[in-house]
Amino acid sequence: MSRTADRPAQEEALSRAVWDVLAQQGLERLTVRAVATAAGCTTGLVMHRFPNRRALLRHARELLHETSRRRVEALEAAAGSPREALRAVLRQGMAIDAESINGSVVWIGFLAAAFADDELIEIHRRNNGLWRQRLERLVRAAAPEWPAARAATVAVALGAMVEGAAAFAAADPAAYPADLQEELLGATLTAYGLAD
Amino acid sequence: MSRTADRPAQEEALSRAVWDVLAQQGLERLTVRAVATAAGCTTGLVMHRFPNRRALLRHARELLHETSRRRVEALEAAAGSPREALRAVLRQGMAIDAESINGSVVWIGFLAAAFADDELIEIHRRNNGLWRQRLERLVRAAAPEWPAARAATVAVALGAMVEGAAAFAAADPAAYPADLQEELLGATLTAYGLAD
DNA sequence: GCGTTACGGTAACATTCGTTACGGAAAGAG
DNA sequence: CTCTTTCCGTAACGAATGTTACCGTAACGC
């Protein structure tokens, strides 16, 4: 063999470049050239790592999910109680600092792109289903006395509220500051009887 | 003068074509030619009605807001009680049939486009602020005994839940059917003590 | 009926897109 | 040191984009 490039590391760097472009320039300017520029390389490397643009987006979407899954599992493991775990996991889905605001913008960009790409929408649905299952499990642990149907409904309601709040905050951070979002989460958990 | 074209009607038809393309092909395929084809004309008419593509998108976005505002006000006027009005207004924000699912897809498309267009994001923020004020007013009417801060928080929480649920349903209608969304709304209103 | 004027379709423009092909260069094998 | 193999930047391709210019045409005033 000759020189060996660290392909996984390059693929991850390119995926992060996809996130950057999506966060700072939007879906319409998410071109192969823009990604290459953001990654500090040329289109040559991009097209040698991925067969085409769609595969690049798919990889970036999968890696985004994987990253957030790892973060969520760490939060869950670090939590002192089921209700603490539920709150922490929901909280990380909101857009409460510059990084998570960027994350929400990227999330919305991928969602919009998915409507024009069957494979992206498939990835979205699978990940959303896993997210829903996770929330359901956390709610069941936080309220063991509830019937299963109640836990399922409340889990989706909580997930939807967090997702919507993150979208609001991503589009207008000044109007939806961090403390407002924290208050939303606290009020909602309290309303459902899931606060500490 | 010579022949007089019904410019407002044409502009509305073109805006509706923008919605159609956004709903059926996604933001990435939202081109001037695609809009013209969907409207049954050529790019010539489009570019004679709007100075450029961005102005076309802006008009379509404004008209979308105006349309939904009228629908919401009709629901509000037809409601028999403040709580009925609140529920009806929130319900119409969800994606419970083919038309409202399309509406949610379009809404997400415009939001994603707004991140790359200062004027679009400005329109979004203004409309979102009006939507927030409306919900706040409806919540105050539905729970007159609440302090203002409580009403404001709950209004945003309700709006975020509806928006998130609509996004979930738009991306995966089979996993988030109409009755599930109705149940989400009912459970959330009940949790806040705002159900009938 | 005729001339004028706005209307909008046609076609072209430069630019940018995704993708492909090529070639120079760097690193390991012998 | 040399040969070989992999890596990736360069440059080009055709297609598609937003936008502009042009021109036939249909309707209205007279």
TrEMBL record, chains A, B:
Task: Offer an example of a GO molecular function term for this protein.
Answer: transcription cis-regulatory region binding
Q: Which domain of life is it from?
A: Bacteria
Q: Which InterPro entries match?
A: BetI_C, Homeodomain-like_sf, HTH-type_TetR-like_transc_reg, HTH_TetR, Tet_transcr_reg_TetR-rel_C_sf
Q: What is this protein called?
A: TetR family transcriptional regulator
Q: Name one Pfam family in it.
A: TetR_N
Q: Which UniProt keywords apply?
A: DNA-binding, Repressor, Transcription, Transcription regulation
Question: What organism is recorded for this protein?
Answer: Paractinoplanes toevensis
Q: Which residues form the HTH tetR-type domain?
A: 8-68
Is Repressor included in the keywords of this UniProt record? yes
Residues annotated as DNA-binding are 31-50
